[in-house]
């Protein structure tokens, strides 16, 4: 492996200097000056601390815990809570993804699911106890929803159960006993806390619990042999008679419908990842086409190569434009689930086409991570599937436009 291939060298960057960026319509100019400055700060951090090493982390399936304090110092946790726009929040995820999809996935799982859950559903006591450390990455969290036998149908098929035990906690307060299993839980191998969703045995309603991952009865194992997001530490988690205090139940959760705000927000951020993937693919493919010599001339001299690059760019711009509109709707409090589902499915499809063209354009070099494109190509498969698969999101939109559900 050559480190220069994992991150563009200064000489490589000069080969495309002065050319238009993948943000061909300059959507970034819609940010205010404070947001533009912060995004530039993030780019500098990613170029220095992430880009040179991301390929190695991915190849070794190792999570870079050592960079978390530096990432926290950027103060980007839950941007909307800090007064930033939804467009800025989306571009943060896109920019992280542009450099390393795995780091972006860690960020959105922790901040957009765990930390935002504390903001949205935590009691004042829970916020006081947990929020500051979580927002500053002194502690990390995971969102434990998906189960071994239930992904798209987890709302109705959830098998993890919670049983209330009156007076079961030390000191005489109520407690809950959790039993069940979760799968594909990002950050699950190393996180300090798990936000666990379970069905109340008493009435069948869905409850949310903040579970200390070190409690007796919690067992965690890493999912091995992944071909995508290898840096992300996904876990299988089993709960065997895990006792959780009533004070660690989310009082704001009483049904699965209460989670829709979180799931809608995380689906938007994953769609932004689809944008970031396309920006990355275009960056790598364009640079390669300009530098790579074949038949005595740069690849970029050939008409078919230019056609591929323009198609990749068009896909990226169309996807970004759709997400910019979603961000505007978020600012108005008007982005509904069918709109978000259309964005996620559309962007995912364009992303798959874009990264496929990029991989093809690099020829044989497109299947080794030394040239970055193979990593981009592989990571796209995870984005295509999680936070609602392409097919499920399509059916959500189909139900909205016909009034007829084809899901069940």
Notes on the protein architecture:
This protein has helices at residues 3-6, 10-14, 33-50, 54-60, 68-73, 86-99, 101-121, 124-135, 154-157, 260-291, 303-331, 337-361, 373-385, 390-402, and strands at 141-144, 161-165, 175-185, 193-200, 206-212, 218-222, 235-245, 293-294, 297-298. The chain is of the alpha+beta class. The strands form two sheets. Strands 1, 2, 3, 4, 5, 6 and 7 form a seven-stranded mixed sheet that branches. It has a two-stranded antiparallel sheet with strand order 8-9. Helix 6 crosses helix 10 and helix 12 runs antiparallel to helix 13 (373-385). The longest helix is centred in the C-terminal third of the chain and has 32 residues, at 260-291. It is globular, with a radius of gyration of 22 Å. Mean pLDDT is 92; it is low at 1-11.
- Which percent bin holds the helix content? 40-55%
Helix-and-strand structural type: alpha+beta
Number of strands: 9
What is the tally of helical segments? 14
Report mean pLDDT, rounded to a whole number. 92
- Give the amount of beta strand, in percent: 5-15%
């Amino acid at each position: 492996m050559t480190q220069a291939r994992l991150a563009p060298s200064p000489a490589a960057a000069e080969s495309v200097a002065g050319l238009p960026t993948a943000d061909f319509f300059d959507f970034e100019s819609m940010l205010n000056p404070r947001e533009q400055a912060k995004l530039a700060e993030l780019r500098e951090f990613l170029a220095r601390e992430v880009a040179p090493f991301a390929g190695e982390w991915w190849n070794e399936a190792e999570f870079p815990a050592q960079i978390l304090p530096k990432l926290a110092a950027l103060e980007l946790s839950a941007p909307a809570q800090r007064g930033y726009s939804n467009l800025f929040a989306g571009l943060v995820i896109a920019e992280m993804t542009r450099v390393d999809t795995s780091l972006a996935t860690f960020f959105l799982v922790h901040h957009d699911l765990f930390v935002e859950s504390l903001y949205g559903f935590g009691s004042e006591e829970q916020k006081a106890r947990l929020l500051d450390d979580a927002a500053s990455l002194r502690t990390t969290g995971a969102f434990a929803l998906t189960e071994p036998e239930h992904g798209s149908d987890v709302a109705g098929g959830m098998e993890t159960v919670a049983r209330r035990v009156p007076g079961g906690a030390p000191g005489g307060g109520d407690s809950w006993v959790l039993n069940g299993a979760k799968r594909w839980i990002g950050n699950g191998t190393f996180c300090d806390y798990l936000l666990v969703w379970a069905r109340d045995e008493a009435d069948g309603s869905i409850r949310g619990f903040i579970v200390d991952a070190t409690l007796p009865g919690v067992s965690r194992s890493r999912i091995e042999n992944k071909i995508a997001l290898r840096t992300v530490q996904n876990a299988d988690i089993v709960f065997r008679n895990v006792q959780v205090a009533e004070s660690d139940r989310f009082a704001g959760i009483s049904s699965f419908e209460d989670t829709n705000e979180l799931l809608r927000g995380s689906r938007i951020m994953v769609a932004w990842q689809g944008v970031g993937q396309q920006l990355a693919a275009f960056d790598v493919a364009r640079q390669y086409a300009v530098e790579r010599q074949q038949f005595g001339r740069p690849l970029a001299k050939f008409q078919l190569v230019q056609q591929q690059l323009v198609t990749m760019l068009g896909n990226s711009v169309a996807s970004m434009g759709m997400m910019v509109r979603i961000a505007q709707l978020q600012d108005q409090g008007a982005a509904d689930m069918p709109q978000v589902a259309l964005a996620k499915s559309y962007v995912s499809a364009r992303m798959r086409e874009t990264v496929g063209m990029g991989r093809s354009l690099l020829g044989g070099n497109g299947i080794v991570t030394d040239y970055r494109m193979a990593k981009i190509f592989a990571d796209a498969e995870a984005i295509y599937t999680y936070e609602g698969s392409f097919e499920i999101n399509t059916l959500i939109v189909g139900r909205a436009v016909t009034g007829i559900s084809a899901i069940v």
